[in-house]
Amino acid sequence: MHYLQVKNWSRFQHYTKRRPIWIKLYLDIVERPEFCTLSRADKWTVMELFILAAKNNNKIPLRRAFFVHVFPEVDWRSVVNSLDNSIRVTSWFRVISDENPDTDIASIDLRAIFASNPLATCYPRDRVETEKEKEPPLPPRGNPSSSNGTFAQFWKAYPRKTGKGLAEKSWTKLRPDSGLVEAILASVEQHRRSPDWTKDSGQFIPLPATWLNQRRWEDEPRTLPYEETEDERYARICAKIGTKPSGGIR
User: What is the edge-to-edge ordering of all strands in the sheet holding 93-97?
Assistant: First the structure.
């Protein structure tokens, strides 16, 4: 069986052992003379070959069934013609086989290879992947039956009494254990004194359900600027002019 490979793949495409949902496309590719001479359709074929190489560990099966599966809307003969133009005009590909690790592309007859391939081979649909890394499992949470009691503590402490039903649903979904309940209540107490929650009569306090859904208890609240007392100001001025305080402001 023959495979198509992209030369220097490991040098330019770094995926370790995972299948990515993207490829690295270097800008100098579109400026190379061999690429510029290709038709628009053949240029797109080159891009598709890069993507297929990423999805198949840089071993693209030169089988008619494979390309019919990948391009079901295109006649396989048109695919072969575009492949033939793309890999012969550019110097970016090589053909390997089970018998020969490096076959001269000039000696390869793609039309003969594709014509001899059966169409019965079935290829599974691609598994949808995302770039998001696997998240660690969530720690065990509290007993759902105890959520109502702890929600009452949260509702009493939270200064904005709007949307209680939604807030309770968010709390029940969260199922906080005793440690998390303590952390949330402590954060509410800190936020109550922050400028964001105290200015303009508290109109910028988030809805309680929103605050819970966005895990805002993990935010660092802004604190009010420190205001020195009159005695501290007097001592600071005395230190600045070089005199000794006489026991505070008279």
Answer: 60-61, 2-6, 93-97
Q: What is the pLDDT of residue 122?
A: 46
DSSP helix, strand, coil percent of the chain (3-state; round to 5)? 50, 5, 45
Distances (CA, A) of 210 to 18, 67, 80, 197, 205: 36, 48, 55, 15, 10
Banded model confidence at residue 127, pLDDT cuts 50, 70, 90: very low
For the cut 70, the answer to whether the pLDDT of residue 154 exceeds it is yes
pLDDT recorded at residue 144: 52
Res. 135: pLDDT tops 50 = no
Burial of residue 158, with CB atoms counted within 10 A of its CB: 0-12 exposed, 13-18 middle, 19 or more buried: buried
**What is the reported pLDDT for 125?**
47
- Contact criterion met (CB below 8 Å) for 6 and 53: yes
Q: How far apart are CA 52 and CA 29, in angstroms?
A: 17
Nearest Cα to 219, choosing from 200, 194, 199?
Answer: 194
Amino acid at 218: E
DSSP states of 133-170: PPPPPPPP---GGGHHHHHHHHHHH-S----HHHHHHH
Q: Are 83 and 45 in contact (CB under 8 A)?
A: yes
Residues 205/197, Cβ–Cβ less than 8 Å: yes
**pLDDT tens by residue, 218-247:** 888 776 555 667 777 778 888 878 777 665
Do the Cβ atoms of 157 and 124 come closer than 8 Å? no
DSSP state of 6: E
